[in-house]
Amino acid sequence: MERILEPEVMDTEAEALEYDAMDFLSINTVFAQQALALGPMVGNILDAGTGTARIPILIAQLRPEWQIVAIDLAQSMLAIAERNVIAAGLEKQIRLEFVDAKHLPYADHCFDGVISNSLLHHLPRPQIFLQEVKRVLKPQGFLLLRDLLRPDTPEQLDQIVNQIGPDYSDRQTQLFRDSLQAALTLPEIENLAQTLALSDLKIYQSSDRHWTIERHYIHR
């Protein structure tokens, strides 16, 4: 099935509210726990495409020794993220910044780890972001990138969308469908991952609708 791009930035208040209301707690918790297993006990972490900051909040609650820079290019998402971070009492641990992930304003090799959930399907040229990830990641740094898989056929897409159940509004369902159509296939991700040029990368399909790129922190 052909990739159909969606807008790179979801930056209306209505879209941000719809997104934040979607129940991703179980899969976000798995992602957070996986990041903790890959990373060091103490570190400076970048979360690219943080959205409404649900994942860094989960991580910060479990690993107070991490300092997290959480970035997004949607002001509406960051506005909700700020409320969420304040409500969780994590303002000293999570720093929210309005930043384009394709042009990171950070020094080379400054992060112990980079994480990103559901960002790449928003990017027309994901390799630009991956080049930036490689630049800002320390040589021993860990990596955890996850996103949706594009189904092979429209029938498979319908089947996945129908599985999310009646709890989602029509708008939320359409957002999910659009994201699946904009997502990448596993072979496309494997090809793009060459941009990272990192040792010990693991690239795999992690669910019926997700791919994952991971790399353990290298302790010296």
Number of helices: 8
Major sheet attributes: 7 strands, mixed
Number of strands: 7
Average pLDDT over all residues: 92
What proportion of the residues form beta strands (DSSP E)? 15-25%
Low-pLDDT residue spans: none
- SSE class: alpha/beta
The number of domains: 1
Cα-atom radius of gyration: 16 Å
Instruction: Kindly identify the CATH topology.
Output: Rossmann fold
Q: Using the alpha-carbon principal axes, give the shape.
A: globular
The CATH class name reads Alpha Beta
Order of helices and strands: HHEHEHEEHEHHHEE
Output the CATH homologous superfamily.
Vaccinia Virus protein VP39
Q: What fraction, in percent, of the residue positions are helical?
A: 25-40%
CATH architecture: 3-Layer(aba) Sandwich
Domain Methyltransferase type: 46-144
Protein name: Class I SAM-dependent methyltransferase
Pfam families: Methyltransf_11
Organism: Woronichinia naegeliana WA131
